[in-house]
Amino acid sequence: MPAKKMNRMELLAELAGTLKGYRLKTAGNIGSGIASEAFTLLSAGISAYMVALALQGTLDESSNKLFILLAFSILGFAVFRYLESLLSHDVAFHILVDYRVKLYSAFEKICPDILLNSKSGQLSVTLMNDVEILEWFFGHTVGSIVATLAIVLGILGFLAWLHPLLSLVMIISMAVIFTIPFLLKGTADKQGLLNRYKLGDANSVTLEGLNGVKEILALNYKERYKQKNDAFMEQLTDSQVDYTKRQGKEGGLLLTAAGVAAIAINITAILLVLHGKLSLEWFAVVGTTIWLAFNPVLALCDKARSFGIIFASATRVSDILHAQPLVKDTGRDIPVAAIKPYIDFDHVSFRYKNAGQNAVSDVSFQIRAGELIAFVGESGAGKTTCTNLLMRLWDVSEGSIRIGGHDLRALSLHTVHSVISAVLQDVYMFNVSIMENIRLGNPAAADGQVIEAAKQAQAHTFICDFEDGYNTIAGERGAQLSGGQRQRIAIARAILTNAPILIFDEAVSNLDTKSEMEIQHTLRALAQKRTIVMVAHRLSTIAIADKLIVFENGQVVQTGTHEELISKDGCYRKLVASQLQKN
Q1: Fewest C-beta atoms under 10 Å: which of 169, 232, 327, 431?
Q2: What's the whole-number mean pLDDT along residues 294-321?
């Protein structure tokens, strides 16, 4: 995350910087905003002026020009108000798309660290809701700020032209009005940030309930979950109510200040009329337009009441965009064909952030090209950590990992992910056809290649059993498929990548015995052309490996074949004995 939180001015500068690509439309938006407010005041001023002339009996045919000017002002107001709304929202919605694209790119760079340290609800609020909140700023605030300042300066000039005293009262009034949101901004920022985090927490609990609804029903956890959900929703409601109370108080103060200011200016104008310093018709103009003149100021201040939420959302978005990835993508691209698929762990140690001890310590081993290797050990021994380091989801704390003689850190992430493909225990399926889910491994693959990969993964038969075959929609997260079916599709996906190194992390854990044996034959066939690393607990899967690497407490304690290690008194034989006893 960034070294320090940005203050309002820094956030404002960053938000304004995103407008650079939309300079022409932004200028049109600002110009239209100024014009629409100016025509509003002009229409009211002309009307008041004409009424004053009529009351004095001096409105004659020579005043026809005023009627024409009034009609022009009304038309101008309508046209420029439309243009202001159109251009402001056109820019705002394009910028929101830009932000969402940039946020997703940022998520990719800082994963998996952010996923371990943030709730999914908080991330979804940032990616969707917080970005949407920024529409208030780009669609309703940027142009308003400039337009309001221009109108205020224009009114001050007009009042100064009528009499300097009117301008002085206006300056004092504006100073008081703009001071109110400034004095309350500290409270607004704190409440806004708290509100966004409470919304994220509430979303997290809701998503948790949706994703775990089967477990909630199966374990009869409905009432407990409802109590938990109600507690988080109540906290969110309390936060929103507190924020709304502060908005109401601020709005009341602003309206009171504007009302007092308008009365003060009118009283000043009356005194000037009584002393012969201001004509009656110009008094009518001042008396009518001054109330309208405060409208854009109050509208801007009304938006300022929501700055707490806007800047809280901008802070959360900025935190993601400026977060520093733990893995720096500074390596170079190398053709996959130029990298031989042998692996070397050289005195590797790694510790997760904020962990008290190393997850793996001084791990060294070599894997030859074309070998089928199994990582063996109890849960938490360091097996998955080593596969994550091999995929460069993290960088080693000490030592080095080399593929084909190249240090992973010297390779670009694109190269690493092209050389290595993985099938994980928790398979994610997208809500598209089975054909497209498999084709994720190689978007350019023809249908025939996809089907061949499915056959190798022992998935072709069950896919054809579906009414729509390969065109069957998998459902969100693969809801239409069983765990074993999802794993076989994930294996087909990995096969289709044609990556020279394949990682299988408990990839056969959800398969029945027959399917497991078929996949084992597939793995043996694949190992003729590729290097395969398996993380497995099943003895039947472990036994087919060319070599076993046994982990215990984050260290490699044994290496060898199944036959070699089972004949020795050590960690592996104890693991096998324990598994046989359970069976």
Answers
A1: 431
A2: 75
Query: Residue 91 carries which side chain, given as an amino acid letter?
Result: V
In this structure, what CATH number is given to the domain that contains residue 412? 3.40.50.300
Cis peptide before 112 (omega within 30 of 0): yes
Q: 499 with 376, same domain?
A: yes
Q: List, for residues 123-153, the tens digit of each pLDDT value.
A: 666 666 777 778 777 877 777 778 888 888 8
Tell me, what DSSP letter sits at residue 499? -
Q: Tens of pLDDT along 183-239?
A: 877 787 788 778 777 877 787 777 777 767 666 766 667 787 788 888 888 888 888
**In sequence order, what are the residues at sequence separation of 6 or more whose Cβ sits closer than 8 angstroms to the Cβ of residue 516?**
508, 538, 540, 541
Burial class (CB in 10 A: 0-12, 13-18, 19+), 40: buried
Candidates 546, 531, 494; CA nearest to 404 is: 531
Tens-digit pLDDT profile for residues 254-299 = 888 888 888 888 899 889 988 888 888 888 888 777 877 777 777 7
Same domain, yes or no: 128 and 160: yes
The domain in which residue 439 lies consists of: 336-582
Is 418 within the bounds of a domain?
A: yes
Please report which residue ranges of 4-63 form alpha helices under DSSP H.
8-17, 23-55
536 within 8 A of 383, measured Cβ to Cβ: no
Q: Which of 261, 287, 321 is the last residue of a domain?
A: 321
How would DSSP label each residue in 323-390?
A: PPPSS----B---GGGS---EEEEEEEE--TT-SS-SEEEEEEEE-TT-EEEEE-STTSSHHHHHHHH
